[in-house]
């Protein structure tokens, strides 16, 4: 009877996501294993860049057409021009430390857990890493997990602009990343080819962001296609929001802010409406320290390890973008997060509305006619190929 307590069925009940640190065995890699992994990552990285060779040319509004690598996979390509810097995108997406990986899980609505298993610095600008990732799936489907080998590489393109590329592929490594289907009911997916390419543009403060995904989720195409489309839309929206929060956190922590006493304010400093104990409550802005109503503030969680969120007024939120974004045609392309002033006040509705706007363009393949304050109106195109296309 005692032996059954250590059975996979018992462990399934006691184990949950996110997994504790150190759950995966991280055996030291021999020099031969490390060389094989680095060479495999190099080969796939070169093939990834060759397959999507248009990433080193100016953004022309066209999608790189390519069939999926497998008849059971669905391939996606999306690109967007966003207000950010290459360094900001690298800090938010590289995830080469356990803390960075945990922060990415806290931000992403689709990533259930992520663990960095191995990190091999090849050169100063090139890293090869192995990581485990678990993705959320809509019920009643089971979550999918992946054992991924990836390569990070920075270089200069033909126009003299910096480019950072991340390529990923699935790898079998039972010794360090075993299958968890019997323990957590996770279905092991297959990343045939995926990656992110970020390129600086001639306009300072703007980057071109390309996202590629060719995955086999072990789902029928009619179900895998909308799931992957939602994943790409959420990823682009999440990058925009994280850049905004990254900048806002830098402004909030830059100096000591004296707090204004609430009893000295009878009206909101933004909308100038009178406060009410029930209908219009008072709250302080974490950035400027003044008193605003809840409708004129936005909720941000700068430290996702903490359970406490901070409120920042709309003017300070927009100012954090405007001060760090350059002018284009006389107009400030201020990077607005999904928590913009015009968006619904609920954080869930804000992200849902933002992703729905992205999905509208993902379905039509159209681009916006003029710049606006959201990523949905930036240059965005997506192509999807199911198993019958291009064959």
Automatic annotation (TrEMBL):
The keyword Ribonucleoprotein does not apply. Residues 262-321 form the FYVE-type domain. The keyword Nucleotide-binding does not apply. Pfam families: FYVE, START. Keywords: Metal-binding, Zinc, Zinc-finger. It comes from the Eukaryota. GO terms for molecular function: lipid binding; zinc ion binding. PANTHER family: FYVE-FINGER-CONTAINING RAB5 EFFECTOR PROTEIN RABENOSYN-5-RELATED (PTHR13510), RABENOSYN-5 (PTHR13510:SF44). This is Aste57867_18489 protein.
